[in-house]
């Protein structure tokens, strides 16, 4: 009798171990699938310091092979778990851009927004400039970029007439970066070459400060590893005054897709991420393959002694905001971006808030909501109106994952 009981116990143990093994294999397969999703499905179809709300309901489930039900507590996270409550701004739709853009660049000079490059699709990149006129809300004045100039992930800054363009990704998919740099005279539409960056970078923080063009961080040549290097070169009236870039104090935290702002003689670097999509090994077209990314909301300021100071972080981690900002009444206003991935689906989550960084108090607030969540917006501010165009928007109000690349233009009246 004892022997019979032992056999039944062994059989049950074997069955339990087999079930546990199958469950483990399923979890591993699910994890690998989520971690290896490619750019074609999430890039172009595509903390809050802590999540604001998580729903964990009880779900009635039947045990396999049995008629009775039992209560099973299962984590079901809201697709909008990262949204911050904020008032809805009144947005007005304007004339759309001539082409949709993702990872493009933009510089505002007076009433004109110069919009550069970017992906049209994952396999096609733009190589021209479009100009939006805030005064009459029209597009026009298209002209070509130099053939050697990068098509996305650019570093860019202006002195009010000349636009300085450094490094970036050359070509579609996840191709390599170029170290080429250029300066554009926006009045004559003429380009000049500048000394190349010491090594190429993806989406470095770039600004003009105290007579020097500063280039900081970004991603290294593999597109994924964060870079800490910081270089500068003296420039004036569209001309380079030195033959070589000078090494400066490294940035405290590396990575691409950050806002870089100079205002009141202070240089700020805001948000960004560590890691990015990179080319799939052996792919002849440099097909993009997803890697782990860490989005952060860190804010750093370079002071008079050329030392970095840590300032209060953004309301939530935010990346893909390098051209998503404007200076409005002694504050920096930032629209959209990307935040931490969904903890269950591992999908990218877009940002739908407009943030304000008060330069007098160095504190953050949430101004309101955008018409939808969107990343890599190109932003301008003119005559009290806050504009954004281009980027990649969400799948709908209840799904913050990225989908459609847009060329739409929206504006809202800001009284800050």
Automatic annotation (TrEMBL):
Q: Does NAD appear among the keywords?
A: no
Q: Does the keyword Transmembrane helix apply?
A: yes
The highest taxon in the source lineage is Eukaryota
Which stretches are transmembrane? Answer: 12-34
For this protein, the record's Gene3D superfamilies field holds: Kelch-type beta propeller
Q: Which residues form the signal peptide?
A: none
Keywords linked to the UniProt accession: Membrane, Transmembrane, Transmembrane helix
Recorded hits in Pfam families, A to Z, give: Kelch_KLHDC2_KLHL20_DRC7
User: Which InterPro entries does this chain map to?
Assistant: Kelch-typ_b-propeller, Kelch_repeat-containing
Give the SUPFAM superfamilies listed for this entry.
Kelch motif
Record's protein name: Kelch repeat type 1
Q: What is the lineage of its organism?
A: Eukaryota, Viridiplantae, Streptophyta, Embryophyta, Tracheophyta
